[in-house]
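Following up on my earlier thread - several people asked me to post the actual chain instead of describing it. Fair enough. Here it is, all 137 residues.
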Amino acid sequence: MERNLLPGPSSFAIRRAGFIGFSVPLSLALLALLLMQLGVGASWFTNILIWTMSATGVGCMFCWPWSESKERKEVRASYTTWPRLHQELEQRDPYLGKVIRRPGEAFLNWPEFRAICKESRAAARTSSTGRTPPLPR
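Reply from S.P.:
Thanks for posting it. Predicted structure:
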């Protein structure tokens, strides 16, 4: 029986966005440290750098609790979008919601899960522009 995902992004997609987004403040922090080592004093550029680093860092910090909350809701809805958690639940594609593993079956291997995610992200982007996504094989 196919059921829809809960509204909004899945817990896996939220956490993935947080990890990817965390590279921005981390890169800016490394740049700030480099500038400090080079002896660059406070300027409008360094001030903007620090503010940008802080704002993006705080934004990424909210992804973790939001993802945890969403994961608990998914478990209550009897599914998971995580590749290695909750083997007793059916596993859904984190972007389109298709069932990709039945309850109790062995976990998908990582390359297989990544391929499914890559394909479904592409299909989700296509469908959000108004075009019909390709049918599953």
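The chain has a mean pLDDT of 82. That should answer part of your original question.
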